[in-house]
Design goal:
This protein is α/β, with parallel strands linked by helices. It contains five helices and nine strands. It has two domains: about 130 residues, 3-Layer(aba) Sandwich (Rossmann fold); about 70 residues. About 30% of the residues lie in helices and about 25% in strands. The protein has a six-stranded mixed beta sheet, with helices on both faces. Helix 2 crosses helix 3. It is globular, with a radius of gyration of 17 Å. The C terminus is likely disordered.
């Protein structure tokens, strides 16, 4: 399989707090990888580093394809509609208005978003905002998807649909990384990377171990 994303020896501290020390992550085309670990293990930090949003203190990240990143907290503008978000994010990707709206609406519809809704984001439910957040990460058809607990606020039906989409992305040959705390769903992924946090004196968070 083609290696699309690799992070090696990733170290990151915030002040005196060590978050990652020698973390390792790789994901291949057609593979779904879950990142798990207790609170403070560095799951979100590792994903942000892989997306290029945060610089590691040391280590290296290699990306062989374009990355789409879905943060846990939606990076949305309260007073913009869904369509306005599609145009705004599409322009950043080099898509014209028509292309951004066409592809974005298709993704929104597939996620169960009320495409005809002209409400601004602040008037949408949490689950509906998260569907828009996920659709924006998919805009422009990235080959690598970095998804940080992307189903926050989803009802049961939308949650099941999300994992069906993950299967479809796998079959399309995309590389998918999902940060999750729902251990019951780990049978849906190909590999699990466990970021363990050790709080004993003199110790630091351990590197991610695949299992």
């Amino acid at each position: 399989m083609t290696l699309l994303l690799e992070a090696t020896g990733v170290t990151k501290s915030f002040g005196r707090r060590s978050v990652l020390l020698g973390a390792y992550l790789e994901v291949h085309a057609g593979e779904v990888v879950a990142i798990v670990g207790e609170n403070g293990a560095g799951k979100t930090t590792l994903l942000r580093i892989c997306a290029g949003l945060v610089a590691p203190d040391s280590g290296m990240v290699r990306r062989a394809a374009r990355v789409g990143y879905c943060p846990q907290q939606p990076g949305l503008v309260d007073l913009l509609t869904a369509n306005q978000h599609l145009v705004l994010f599409g322009r950043a990707l080099g898509l014209d208005r028509a292309a951004a709206l066409r592809s974005g609406r298709e993704m929104l519809e597939s996620l169960g978003f009320p495409v005809g809704d002209t409400a601004v984001v602040r008037d949408l439910s949490g689950g509906t905002r998260q569907k828009l957040n996920l659709a924006l990460a998919l805009l422009g058809a990235p080959t690598v998807l970095l998804l940080d607990e992307p189903y926050q606020g989803f009802d049961r039906g939308s949650y099941v649909d999300f994992w069906q989409h993950v299967d479809a992305w796998r079959h399309e040959g995309r590389a998918v990384v999902v940060v999750t705390h729902l251990l019951a769903e780990l049978q849906r992924v190909d590999r699990v990377v466990d970021l363990s946090v050790v709080r004993a004196e003199g110790s630091v968070p351990a590197a991610g171990a695949a299992r």
